[in-house]
């Protein structure tokens, strides 16, 4: 049993924008490319639905994809379902790719993934009476050809996002929510992934996955059955793990501090979990940042104020209290470790490892009046601690923090008349490439409606990075982008989340996908390591995780 985050879960790839949905979708469907499962080459993209790597034109705008043909013994197939003729799953064809990608236009989160990327996509996504985007398919040949709006070094990594998984159009039409035997497709998935949903034993809070038996892949190893469930309470997860009912879970907060001896040399305290339990720590492709709303006249025209607020931010106290020293590591640049950055790099010129109060005060010297700062956060007990940390950090600067407590503050920022000047947000990768972070801060990026930051010099650097072929070293461009963000200071990096995983001694094959999380299809049970007889007869695992994967 894998306790999922208590959030809205969809099993339709097009709408799978949260962690729990992506975890499930990643097991039920497949994408054209995916990240390698070879532990020596985890950052290599390999064909999944494709027969070979994509072919690119010399100018980097035209891309040719070759699917495996039905005659190939390893050609992927959709799992059998009554939505197909005679209830038998069929081979994937090129038009399935086009149909699946075009469906993204009707899902706000999915639409953003391809916006500005494929020629004709934006105009058609906004108005379906316009000419369709340049996605040319040949089902007989198994080919897909697209034309991009510009060279995009990160396009291949985007293709490994579970939201771009391929679905059968006839099943989407069949499962339209019109009756009990025709639930919405988001609740009745039909894909080609390593697992299929066991509808008879699944509920909105419990998902039972069965190993897909009718796939074209030659190798079908691993667990035959996996159960995932929403288990919100941290103590319940721990108790179930202690009893041996959970294969793994993700401890957090005070619970993590009780179980682990040290954040720097992590070992488990004896007697709290089954002997020989395995503890692992993962860096996540995420970064928590402090953002300044540049449409506010006071902040937009006062870079010294933004820089002073960044310098005085008390990162160590924030990490100790808000994230705990176990669950977060101080950030000194935008890019998280493993996706262009590494721990201990403080490249942002106004984001030191410890607060630099003298330098911050020097930037504001001579200002006699107190400076108000309207900071938005949630209405929670943890937010009260966050407010106290910021208030204490900024008081010596003559800055008076005015807290706006609202669980829906994010939607308020874009409203006319909003007085919010600063807030923090967690930026998560939607594909494993530095551009997924840098593009947020462009003049047309995802954060622009909220902070109104627009720097054409920065945008030019992003365009250069996007047009650079993957084989070319981009370290200098990446550093230039990081420094430009630091100099203009629309943001201040705070911390990189760290994920801790605790698993039973009998669970092997543990590997994580950079976007969708735990690779359930790789898990194995080794009964000889557990001493538990029930695993000798049943190849089944109940897996536990924290609220997020």
Note the main attributes of this structure.
20 helices, four-stranded antiparallel beta sheet, Dipeptide-binding Protein, domain 1, Dipeptide-binding Protein, domain 3, 24 strands
- What separation lies between the terminal Cα atoms? 13 Å
- Indicate the radius of gyration in whole angstroms: 25 Å
The total beta strand count reads 24
**Tell me about the biggest sheet?**
8 strands, mixed
> What would the average pLDDT be, to the nearest integer?
88
Number of continuous helical runs:
20
Structural class: alpha+beta
Approximately how much beta-strand content do the residues carry?
15-25%
State the helical fraction. 25-40%
CATH class categorisation of the domain at 286-497: Alpha Beta
Please identify, by name, the CATH architecture of the domain at 286-497: Roll
- What is the CATH T-level topology of the domain at 286-497? Dipeptide-binding Protein, domain 3
Shape label = globular
Assigned CATH superfamily of the domain at 286-497 = Dipeptide-binding Protein, Domain 3
């Amino acid at each position: 049993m894998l306790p999922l985050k208590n959030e809205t879960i969809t099993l339709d790839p097009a709408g799978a924008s949260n962690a729990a949905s992506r975890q499930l979708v990643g097991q039920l469907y497949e994408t054209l490319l995916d990240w390698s499962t070879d532990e020596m080459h985890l950052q290599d993209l390999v064909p999944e639905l494709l027969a070979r790597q994509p072919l690119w034109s010399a100018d980097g705008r035209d891309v040719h994809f070759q699917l495996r043909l039905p005659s190939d013994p390893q050609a992927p197939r959709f799992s059998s379902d009554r939505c197909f003729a005679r209830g038998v799953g069929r081979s994937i064809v090129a038009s399935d790719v086009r149909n699946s990608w075009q469906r993204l236009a009707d899902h706000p989160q999915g639409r953003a993934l391809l916006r500005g990327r494929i020629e004709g996509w934006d105009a058609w996504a906004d108005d379906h009476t316009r000419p369709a985007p340049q996605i040319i398919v040949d089902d007989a040949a198994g080919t897909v050809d697209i034309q991009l709006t510009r060279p995009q070094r990160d396009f291949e990594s985007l293709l490994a996002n579970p939201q771009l998984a391929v679905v059968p159009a006839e099943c989407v039409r069949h499962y339209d929510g019109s009756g009990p035997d025709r639930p919405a497709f988001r609740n009745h998935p039909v894909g080609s992934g390593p697992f299929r949903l066991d509808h008879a034993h699944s509920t909105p809070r419990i998902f039972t996955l069965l190993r897909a038996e009718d796939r074209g892949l030659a190798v079908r190893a691993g667990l035959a059955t996996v159960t995932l469930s929403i288990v919100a309470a941290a103590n319940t997860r721990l108790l179930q793990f202690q009893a041996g009912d959970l294969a793994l879970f993700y401890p957090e907060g005070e619970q993590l501090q009780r179980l682990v001896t040290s954040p720097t040399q992590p070992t488990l305290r004896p007697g709290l979990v089954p002997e020989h339990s395995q503890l692992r720590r993962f860096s996540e492709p995420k970064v928590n940042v402090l953002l300044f709303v540049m449409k506010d006249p006071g902040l937009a025209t006062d870079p010294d104020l933004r820089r002073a607020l960044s310098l005085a931010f008390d990162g160590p106290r924030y990490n100790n209290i808000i994230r705990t020293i176990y669950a977060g590591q101080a950030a000194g640049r935008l890019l998280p470790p493993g996706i262009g950055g590494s721990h201990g790099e403080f490249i942002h010129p106004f984001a030191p490892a410890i607060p630099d109060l003298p330098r911050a005060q020097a930037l504001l010297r001579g200002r006699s009046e107190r400076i108000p700062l309207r900071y938005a956060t949630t209405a929670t007990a943890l937010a009260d601690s966050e407010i106290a940390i910021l208030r204490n950090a900024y008081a010596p600067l003559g800055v008076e923090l005015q807290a706006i407590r609202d669980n829906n503050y994010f939607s308020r920022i874009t409203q006319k008349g909003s007085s919010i000047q600063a807030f923090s947000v967690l930026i998560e990768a939607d594909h494993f490439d530095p551009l997924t972070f840098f593009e947020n801060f462009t003049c047309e990026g995802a954060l622009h409606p909220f902070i109104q930051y627009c720097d054409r010099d920065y945008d030019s650097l992003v365009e250069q990075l996007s047009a650079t072929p993957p084989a070319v070293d981009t370290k200098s461009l990446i550093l230039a982008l990081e420094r430009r963000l630091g100099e203009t200071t629309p943001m201040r990096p705070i911390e990189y989340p760290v994920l801790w995983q605790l698993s039973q001694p009998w669970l092997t094959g543990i590997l994580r996908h950079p976007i969708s999380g735990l690779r359930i299809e790789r898990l194995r049970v080794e009964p000889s390591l557990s001493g538990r007889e029930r695993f000798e007869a049943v190849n089944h695992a109940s897996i536990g995780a924290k609220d997020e994967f």
